[in-house]
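Task 17 of the worksheet. Students: predict the tertiary structure of the chain below and write it out as C-alpha cells. Keep your answer in the requested format; marks are given for formatting as well as content.
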Amino acid sequence: MKLPILVNALSIIKLLLTIFPIWYMITSHMNNKLIKKIKRALARWAYYFFFWFFSLLPLKFIFMISNGLLSIAYPFLIGMRSIAKESLTIAFSKEKSEDEIDRILRDCFFNLGRGFIEMFCYVQRPQLILKKLHLTTGSLENLEKAIKENKGVVGVSAHFGNFSLMLLYLTKLGFSIHTIIRPSRDVLIEKSFQVQRSKMNFKTILSLPRYSCVRQSLMALRKKEIVVVLMDQNTDEKSGVFVDFFGQKAGTPTGAVVFAMRTGSPILPMFTVRDGKDSHKIIIEPHFYLEIKPTEEETLQYNVQKITNIIESYIRQYPEEWGWMNRRWKNKPNSSTRQDKNPGS
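Model answer:
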C-alpha cells in the first residue's frame, strides 16, 4: 500500500468528520423530502468511499481506528439515538436504571457500527470469515438434524448481532441458505449489494414484491434448502399479527409460520453474538415443529408468539446486540384483533 494513498484517504475522512456537524445544522432547516434525498446520496457515497478505503488498509489498523470513528459519529446521530432510547425505555424502564439504558444504547450503536465495518472488511477478505466466527457446542449438530428431517428448514432469527456474517459463515460451510431481506430504497446501492452477494454466493430473496418472495421461499423449502426469516420487524395487521414483546403488543410478520404451515418444514432458531472485539459465536437451537391449533388464525398467533418469545429471550440476555433504532411498537392493534394466550406464560 502506497503511503500517499493512505494519507489522502485519511485526509478525506478528516474532512467528512469535520463537515458532519455543519451538515446536521444545515439540514435541520430543510424540507424533509429533500433531506432524505441528500441523506441517501451521502450514504451512497460514504458506502463507496469506505468500501474502497477499507480495501487499502491492514485489518488491524481498520479495527484500531474504528472506535475513534464511531466515537466521533455517535453524538451526531441524534434522531437514531432518540428512537433507540425510546425503544429501550419501553422495554426496560421497569427493570433498568437510566444509566444502564444509556450504556446499552451506546454499546448497541458501537456494535452496529463495528458490524458494518466488519462486513466491509470480510467481504473483501472472505478467507477470514471462517476464522472470525465459530459455532457453539451442539449448534452444528442441531443444524444437521433439522436438515436430515428432509423437509427443508425455516430458520428464524432477528436483526441481532452480525447476522449477515453468520449467514455468510454457514454458506461458507456449504449449507444452501436463502435469506429474506428488504431491498434498499436506494436502487444504486441495492445493485452494488447484489453484486457483492453474488460474489459471496450469498443467496437472498427480496421481500418485495410479496408474491415473488412467497413463491421463491416455498420453492427453496421444497428443494430441501434453508430459508431464513428475520422475525423482529414492525408490521401491521394486513401482513402480520400482534403478539407480546417486552410486555407490549407488537405487530409481527407471520411469514416463517406460514411457510412452515405450507411445507411442514421444521423451525430452527439461530443467532450470533459478539465473542470478543472482532469475533462472533453462532448459536443454533434444536428445531421444533409448529403447534397446530383448532383454527389457522390460532396456529399463526400461537407460533408467532412462541418464536417472538425466543427472540426476546436473546435480546434480554444480550441487549446490546439488537437494533433498538427499529420502531418495534410503532403500529397498534385494533380493538377487534384477537390475542391468544402467550405460549410462554
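Marker's comment: DSSP finds twelve helices and nine strands in the chain. Confidence is low (pLDDT under 50) at residues 1-19, 335-345.
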